[in-house]
Amino acid sequence: MKYEQLDSVAVLHLDDGKANAVGYQLMDAVDEALTKSERDAGALILHGREGVFSAGFDLKEMQKGADAASKLVGRGAKMFLRMFAHPQPLLVACTGHAIAAGGFMLLAADNRIGAAGDFKIGLNETAIGMAFPVFGQELARARIDPRHQTRAYVQAQLFDPDGAVAAGFLDRVLPPDQVLDGAIAEARALAELPAGPYAQNKRDLRAAYIAAIEASLA
Question: What pTM was estimated for this model as a whole?
C-alpha cells in the first residue's frame, strides 16, 4: 500500500501482490488515507493493482470461523460507511476485477473510472450463500440503478466494465493505461469545488442511507 499526494489530489495505491483482499491491512490503509486526505488534500483516489481492484473480503480470515468472519465484516462495514460519508470527493481507479467487498468499495465512492477489459464487477453474495448486512443493503439501494438491482443484488450477476456502468458500479470506462490519469484529472477538477458545500450536500443526499448503516453498527 502506497500513499502519495499530487498537488490537491491524494492517491492510495492498493497492491498486496495478489487479489487486494479486503483484510485488516487494506482497511487500515484506507482509514489512514481518508484521514490524511481530509487534512492535506482536496480529493482522494483509491487505485488498484493491474488487473484487480479488489476480489473481496480476505478469505483466509473469513475461514477462521463465524466470530472471525463477523469481526472482519463489521470492520469492513465501518470502512464502507466512512468512505460513503467522506466529506471530500472520493474516487476509485478500478483497474480490473471488483467483486463482493470490492464492489462495495465502488458503491461507497463518489466517482468510479474502470479499466476496459475482460473483468468481472459486482456482488456475488447470493451465489456463495450469504445474506447482505445492512451496509450492503443501503449501498445497493443508494447506488445501483433500480433497473439492475434485482440482477445485481439478488441474482448475483457479475458485469463486464461497460455493463457495470449501466448497473451503477462504474461511471465510465477507459483503456487500462489511462485509468489512473483519468481519475487524477477528474479528482483535480472536483477538488476545485467549494469544500464546505460539497461535504454538506453529499451528506444531505445520503443522510437516510448513512443513518441506517450507523444504526446497524450501534
Answer: 0.96
